[in-house]
Write a structure and sequence with these properties.
The protein starts with a helix and ends with a helix. The radius of gyration is 39 Å and the shape is elongated. Helix 3 (21-39) packs antiparallel against helix 4 (43-70), helix 3 (21-39) packs antiparallel against helix 6 and helix 7 (134-155) packs across helix 8 (162-173). It has helices at residues 2-7, 9-14, 21-39, 43-70, 78-96, 104-126, 134-155, 162-173, 186-280. By secondary structure, it is mainly alpha-helical.
């Protein structure tokens, strides 16, 4: 398992959010549920939207229960679990709400639920993205753009083709606002609001990843220079150690010589004295 993580660390960290498929699927199901109830023309569409809310609530609660069992002693995850349970409660309220025109309070409640869902969805996916995930981030941005184009094509009557839907999604995400195609219905306007919020997050991550690539190149150059300086210092240190070792050997020889020098001089004095006595005799 550790070898596999070392081989593909970037991809595994990027898709780590797939470890909570129940929550991911539940959040995704709430999106068609909201718009089936908002833009549905028949009772069948509204019933399908309510069914989506019910399925999403069950999946989110099931995921929250699993996470509670795994991390019951970890207090830092309790905030996210409370947010998940709040989303599930909102889905149940939307399921049980009467099938009639939404009042102001119900509009506020449903928009708050949508905001919580978008926030939790962003927390679930974007928290695992790193500067080394540029390819994955671009792929996710393309998927988001294509999905947003399909959403506008379904919700906006002024969009007559999927290509126009993608164009409206791009101008909305980029906040360009050319004005050639604009959202005109309540459903498409609400959809545009959340697309803009997600677009800010997505484009900021893409630009941050691109900037990180240039910074990483400069860091690699500085790291290479630092390693070269370290190798040069290592060679100099090795040379100094060799020089000190030679000096120590020389000092040791001098000490031995100085210890033996007085003995040699005494023997010479005795030899000289004996030779003198013989000469006198």
């Amino acid at each position: 398992m550790n070898d596999k993580q070392n081989m593909l660390p970037v991809t595994q960290r990027f898709v780590a959010w797939l470890s909570r498929p129940l929550l991911l699927l539940g959040l995704m199901i709430t999106i068609p549920g909201f718009y089936l109830e908002l833009a549905g023309d028949t009772d069948l569409f509204r019933a399908a939207g309510r069914a989506c809310y019910g399925i999403a609530a069950v999946l989110i609660v099931a995921d929250a229960m699993l996470q509670w069992r795994r991390n019951r002693w970890s207090s830092r995850r309790h905030g996210k679990l409370m947010l998940d349970l709040g989303i599930a409660v909102g889905c149940v309220i939307s399921l049980l709400a009467p099938a009639q025109s939404w009042s102001t309070a119900e509009w506020i409640m449903r928009l708050g639920l949508c905001a919580a869902i978008v926030l939790r969805f962003a927390m679930l996916i974007l928290q695992h993205m790193r500067p080394s995930h540029l390819v994955q981030v671009i792929g996710l941005a393309i998927v988001m753009l294509c999905s947003a184009g399909a959403g506008f094509y379904w919700l906006e009557p002024n969009v007559h083709s999927y290509a126009n839907g993608v164009w409206l999604a791009f101008t909305t995400i980029a906040t360009v606002g050319y004005g050639d195609i604009v959202p005109s219905t309540a459903a498409s306007k609400i959809f545009a609001v959340f697309i803009v919020l997600l677009g800010y997050a997505m484009f900021s991550i893409v630009t941050a990843n691109i900037a990180a690539l240039f910074v990483e190149e400069e860091e690699e150059e500085l790291e290479q220079e630092l390693h070269a300086d370290i190798r040069a210092l290592s060679r100099e240190l090795h040379a100094l150690r060799q020089e000190l070792r030679q000096r120590d050997e020389l000092l040791a020889r001098l000490e031995i010589y100085l210890e033996q020098a007085p003995v040699v001089s005494a023997e010479n004095e005795d030899a000289i004295r004996v030779s003198k006595e013989r000469n006198v005799a």
